[in-house]
Design a protein that fits this description.
mainly alpha
Amino acid sequence: MSLLKTALLMRSTRDTRSSPSRTWWSTEAKELEIRLYGAIEAIRADTMAVLRLNRSSASR
């Protein structure tokens, strides 16, 4: 598990415990964080693919 994902999960868990009256907000925020994490991972994967492609093109 990445450091970012761990930090986001810890923060959202802490928020839910400290303020039960804001559960709806915490749930929505957690869903957004999960989507954000997915988007970041997709960008990272695309970036790595481009870097590999550039390296293979440069070595020709």
